[in-house]
Design goal:
By secondary structure, the protein is α+β, with helices and mostly antiparallel strands. The protein is built from eight helices and 14 strands. Strands 1, 2, 3, 5, 6, 8, 11, 12 and 14 form a nine-stranded antiparallel beta sheet that branches.
Amino acid sequence: MDASQGTGISALPEGCISNVLSFTSPYDACTLSVVSSLFNNAAESDTVWERFLPTDFQSIISRSLDHQSLSASSSSKKQLYFRLCQNPILIDDGKKSFTLDKWTGKKCYMLSARDLTIVWGDTSTYWRWVSDPDSRFKEVAELISVCWLEICGKINTQMLSPAAMYTAYLVFKLTKEAYGLQSHPAKVSVGLAGSESFTRSVFLDVEREQRRGSFNRRGNFGLLASVPNAGSDGGYPKERADGWLEIKLGEFFNKEGKDGELEMSVLELKGGHWKGGLVVQGIEIRPIRE
């Protein structure tokens, strides 16, 4: 072969490089695109980004109310990919939202409050359904007052990315008049229907940890109910980038080929005391980045 043709990777056809990049990850493809103009062109290929999209992406998009405009306005598979990463789409009559994790391409879902089972949720004495400009959904559920707090959600594991570790979160906020949530921990769980679930105790009151630290520094032990070990998960809500709060419910590994219902729950039943001011947007299920 003529030496002027080169023997390095730059001698490979662009299509060949695109095919190789499609077996990496979105993060790797973006990183390698700065190596050279050849790699940049290869990394822009639909061959690469169609492989990063879920195999059922067209079916998922078809369940969106604006599926036609979404497909028509995306000039490439890369553009469609990043639109799905940056802008959640509402599917299933607006009761779920769907996004992609930017760096892995794995599926993320949020089940709206309307897609959850909330005990007494349709009784106006206890809960009310209101709009919230900060919510991605048409309605959120606002707790007026209950002594029996029970919120459950479920999703078929076939909807999730295979061979992926997921974490479920309750996404919520508190009104200024919130009360009763700091007194007793809630029990949260995640697991397959018919199997043993991962269960732990959490507090839904974001200010409790601050008060706990203040009490402990002053030596005023025993003023609050026992607090679960914070650990790396905290056991307390964390503020999200969108301004809402989230509390971890648990983790779940979605085995490839496994079919079942993933069940998630938030329960606070034992105290028998009244509580209110919890505003539920939904339950989010998103992959853990390796």
